[in-house]
Design goal:
Helix content: 10-25%
Number of strands: 29
Strand content: 25-35%
Oligomer: single chain
Structural class: alpha/beta
CATH class of the largest domain: Alpha Beta
Largest sheet: 7 strands, mixed
Distance between the termini: 40 Å
Number of domains: 2
Radius of gyration: 21 Å
CATH architecture of the largest domain: Alpha-Beta Complex
Shape: elongated
CATH topology of the largest domain: Spore Coat Polysaccharide Biosynthesis Protein SpsA, Chain A
Length: about 350
């Protein structure tokens, strides 16, 4: 079966972290989230996967390869100009010519939403599009979907103000499509699912339905707040990506005498925790990263080869690839990275 990962965006909401790292390679528990997505798709039998790339494309190809290490085949669409979420899919129309139905998922989705049940529902009701939905108590940071009694999608609200929400069902960006969806997307045109395709389907009363997944885990890691939440959820065992090492210390990490490791942590290969340093979970210390003498790293995520200077204090901080935090610095609930 075939699927597509949408990965062409610039992930500006995660700047400055994603200036140097493209969106598909944003790490969750030490591995690019795109790798988690590929394994998720593979679990449900999707072994032919297209992925569109735009920003820093060579680094994505190098990291993911041809997909063989995941047991799948990756087909790359290198967009020279971004054409929107639907526009990217349109360029792969011939790729899906032998597929009556297929799945589309974002590279920033971390989830276990049951794709087999989603696809079965999609086929049973002969839908043109079926959107995976999860409930949230607070929905002001999400796209909200309104269903009628037949589960047909009859309305959207984008980040509704508290108290104005018409639903507590959130659009996950995980879709089952029939080939007829290509008739709704013009060629060689910037076109977006949320802004153009879906409102048109809704207005036409087309076979556009929602699929409720009340027990599914889902997070969109595209904002600092959601990225932190997803990372903490993985470390604390609320969600474990397929094939991942959610916690623990790599065999070749160096933990100095007098350093303290407390709580749920992920410490990568070649990492170094110096004397008197204190790492408090949930925290990630990436591959080759270092925490200097007497520094505190609490509820923070250090990407590969980050360096935390002696005596620094970090809480709820995100530190980008190869970034050096100067000795004695204090970083609280912020993101820092090389520009």
């Amino acid at each position: 079966m075939k699927a597509m990962i949408l990965a062409g965006g610039l992930s500006t909401r995660l700047y400055p972290l994603t200036r140097q790292v493209p969106k598909p390679l944003v790490p969750v528990a030490g591995e690019p989230n795109a790798a988690h997505v590929i394994r998720y798709l593979k679990r449900y039998g999707f072994n032919e996967i297209a992925i569109n790339i735009f920003y820093l494309p060579d680094s994505i190809r190098e990291a993911l390869g041809d997909g063989s290490r995941f047991g799948v085949h990756l087909e790359y669409l290198h967009e020279r100009e971004l054409m929107g979420s639907a526009g990217a899919l349109k360029q792969m129309e011939s790729y899906f010519s032998d597929s009556d139905d297929f799945i589309v998922v974002g590279c920033d989705d971390l989830t276990d939403l049951p794709l087999d049940a989603l696809l079965a529902r999609h086929r049973a009701i002969r839908a043109i599009a079926t959107s995976g939905l999860v409930p949230r108590e607070r929905v002001d940071q999400y796209g909200v979907v309104v269903l009628d009694d037949d589960e047909r999608i009859v309305g959207f609200q984008e980040k509704p103000a508290l108290g104005t929400e018409r639903s507590r069902l959130v659009n996950t960006g995980i879709y089952a499509f029939s080939r007829a969806i290509f008739n709704e997307i013009p060629a060689a045109t910037f076109y977006d699912f949320g802004k153009q395709v879906f409102p048109a389907l809704e207005a036409a009363r087309a076979a556009f339905f929602g699929f409720r997944a009340p027990e599914a885990y889902w997070s969109d890691i595209g904002t600092p707040e959601e990225y932190r939440r997803a990372t903490y959820d993985v470390l604390e065992g609320r969600f474990v990506p397929i094939g991942a090492r959610p916690v623990g210390v790599a065999d070749d990490a160096e933990i100095a005498t007098g350093a303290r490791i407390e709580g749920k942590v992920w410490i990568g290969a070649g990492a170094r925790i110096e004397r008197g340093a204190h790492v408090v979970g949930p925290s990630v210390v990436g591959v080759g990263a270092s925490v200097g003498r007497d520094a505190l790293v609490e509820r923070s995520v250090l990407w590969d080869r980050a360096e935390i200077g002696a005596g620094s204090r970090l809480r709820d901080a995100l530190v980008g690839l190869d970034y050096r935090v100067e000795a004695g610095s204090e970083l609280i609930a912020c993101s820092v990275a090389n520009e």
